[in-house]
């Protein structure tokens, strides 16, 4: 019972100090409270139009509006319904709630097309070809191949290979499966059988 009273008093003291701090901050003009930020409708229309034209991304849109990105994601539908009325010069004309779904589908389609175009441009501009050539394994050096052969013939532990060559267990298993089917491994097996 006494600990309950102590805990209650500590909470009350903390709340009192918090109220005092808020009052002081308000007097100094540093505290704005948890009120939602008001967005100017003209500013929203201007920057949202740029966003729809893919001249801004959502992070830039949030920065221009003075809200966080998470707030923008959470409130974007509300902002659109409150503030955005496309110009008559745009293809869509005036937007109503009935065309909201169509707008979202159109926006998603435009985004996919824009994104795929950007990827294609990036790939064509790069001299690096994506992916690894078929059958080419870059980490499989001659030393690693010899160690995996020793591992497959039970002369070396897998843990030692992983540490020595700094590869993952799955990579080691994959290379072991590749090496098991090669002629080098069969020769090593034959040599070990002859020697024993």
Question: Can you characterise this structure?
Answer:
Among the domains are: about 80 residues, no CATH class; about 55 residues, no CATH class. It has nine helices and no strands. It is flat.
* Shape designation: flat
Total of DSSP H or I helical runs spanning 4+ residues: 9
Sheet with the most strands, sense and barrel status:
none
Structural class: mainly alpha
Radius of gyration: 32 Å
Helicity range of the residues?
Answer: 55-70%
Strand segment count = 0
Name the helix and strand elements from N-terminus to C-terminus, one letter apiece. HHHHHHHHH
Terminal CA distance:
80 Å
What is the overall pLDDT average? 76
Strand content: under 5%
Low-confidence stretches: 88-98
Brief sketch in words of this structure:
The protein is mainly alpha-helical and 196 residues long. It is built from 9 helices and no strands.
């Amino acid at each position: 019972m006494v600990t309950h009273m102590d805990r209650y008093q500590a909470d009350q003291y903390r709340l009192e100090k918090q109220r005092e701090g808020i009052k002081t901050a308000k007097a100094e003009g540093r505290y704005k409270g948890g009120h939602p930020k008001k967005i100017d409708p003209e500013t929203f229309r201007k920057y949202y139009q740029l966003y729809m034209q893919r001249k801004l991304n959502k992070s830039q849109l949030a920065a221009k509006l003075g809200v966080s990105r998470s707030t923008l994601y959470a409130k974007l539908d509300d902002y659109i319904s409150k503030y955005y009325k496309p110009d008559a010069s745009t293809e869509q004309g005036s937007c109503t709630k009935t065309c909201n779904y169509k707008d979202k589908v159109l926006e998603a389609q435009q985004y996919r097309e824009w994104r795929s175009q950007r990827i294609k441009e990036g790939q064509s501009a790069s001299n690096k070809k994506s992916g690894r050539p078929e059958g080419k394994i870059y980490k499989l050096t001659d030393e690693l191949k010899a160690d995996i052969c020793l591992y497959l013939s039970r002369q070396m532990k897998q843990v030692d290979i992983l540490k020595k060559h700094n590869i993952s267990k799955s990579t080691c298993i994959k290379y072991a499966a590749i090496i098991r089917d090669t002629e080098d491994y069969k020769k090593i097996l034959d040599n070990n059988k002859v020697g024993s």
